[in-house]
Specification:
Layout (H helix, E strand, L loop, with lengths): L4 H8 L3 H8 L6 H14 L5 H8 L4 E6 L5 H16 L3 E6 L4 H13 L4 E4 L10 H6 L3 E4 L10 E4 L1 H14 L5 E6 L5 H16 L9 E4 L3 H13 L6 E4 L2 H13 L9 E5 L4 H4 L5 E4 L2 H17 L10 E4 L2 E3 L8
Length: about 325
């Protein structure tokens, strides 16, 4: 027969109230926490989360919706989110939107049916309609990586425009004027468009002309990086440097350079986004814009748990947390 909370009481000598407080995430004395955790291990106690949820209206479960679970960027954020939730003794349900707004909306409805206490979203959509069911149910939502255009909601992100401007300024500081950019479709994807604007800001501030042939604005993929660099390297007046605005594009761009007869940085200088694996395994080592991904994940969880804790206490003003980036030094930019 499965062990019960009463078995823990008999093993520890503590009151049911103290044990229940611990099991529901409350603070108990360190010595009592040790006794309870030892008893749970010895008795192989498994709480009945369904029954507990019926009583407390909480499941200690958080849903996370990502635009593409195959993305290393998303996978890295999920790791940090999961670590933080485990530390807070919360479970995690992950849903992949597969870059589909329709799937994203269904994912929200699915998580609400699972009675999650809150939801973190790395969104596909640019407007908030898909979150209407969560709002009606009173389930807190925190956006991660990107805000929505029509409504201010809790969000943790970087300043993409500033990060891109600083990356392009690094190229300009090294004497580059003919600088290309590869990013997601202009106006079609938030981070891509913000990073394009940062590129444009740096070029205009330096008084540099933007050659239309140097603008490669397509989808967010390895293929985009690969094909775009192939096209740039074939130009009669090819650029001397390329700013690659996301990790997948950076990966494809490096593949294209490696297949060409040209070298980096001798013939083409490169600076990319997201210092995940790529910059550590390719030669020369790439200059990269580094996002504080662990901090992003942890702050999103912390903000969401704050909202869960204050649920039902009235409206709260949306909080936007904007974190700083840095540029990791590499060998992929030549001085000209």
């Amino acid at each position: 027969m499965p062990s019960t909370i009463r078995d823990i009481r008999e093993r520890t000598g503590l009151s049911l109230a103290t044990i229940s407080k611990y099991l529901n995430g409350g603070n108990v004395l360190p010595e009592n926490r040790t006794l309870i955790e030892e008893a749970i291990r010895e008795l192989h106690y498994q709480p009945n989360e369904i029954a507990r949820g019926l009583v407390t209206n909480k499941t200690r479960t958080v849903g996370v919706v990502v635009y593409d679970i195959g993305s290393l960027f998303n996978g890295t954020l999920l790791r940090y989110i999961g670590q933080m939730l485990r530390k807070e003794r919360y479970g995690l349900l992950i849903c992949d939107s597969n870059n589909s707004e329709e799937t994203e909306a269904e994912n929200i409805r699915f998580l609400l049916r699972k009675k999650v206490d809150g939801i973190i979203v790395i969104p596909v959509s640019s407007v908030s309609l898909f979150l209407k069911p969560a709002k009606e149910a009173g389930v807190p939502v925190v956006l991660l990586d990107r805000p929505l255009s029509d409504e201010a909601l809790d969000c943790v992100r970087i300043d993409n425009r500033k990060a891109a401007r600083l990356a392009v300024e690094k190229l300009i500081e090294n004497g580059h004027e003919n600088i290309a950019v590869i990013c997601s479709n202009e106006g079609g994807e938030y981070t891509g468009y913000e990073r394009f604007k940062g590129y444009r800001d740096a070029m205009e501030a330096a008084g540099l002309i933007i050659d239309p042939d140097y603008l490669k604005m397509r989808d967010h993929s390895i293929e985009t990086g690969y094909e775009s660099v192939k096209e740039l390297l074939s130009l009669r007046n090819r650029p001397t440097a390329v700013f690659m605005s996301n990790y997948e594009v950076s990966l494809g761009a490096v593949m294209a350079v490696n297949e060409s007869d040209l070298s980096c940085p001798g013939d083409i200088s490169l600076i990319g986004f997201d210092d995940l694996i790529l910059s550590h395994i390719v030669k020369p080592r790439l200059y990269m814009v580094v996002q504080p991904m662990q901090e992003m994940g942890e702050k999103a969880v912390k903000l969401l748990l704050e909202r869960i804790g204050s649920r039902g206490r009235g409206e709260t003003q949306a909080t936007e947390i904007i974190l700083n980036t840095r540029i990791s030094r590499g060998d992929s930019i030549a001085r000209i």
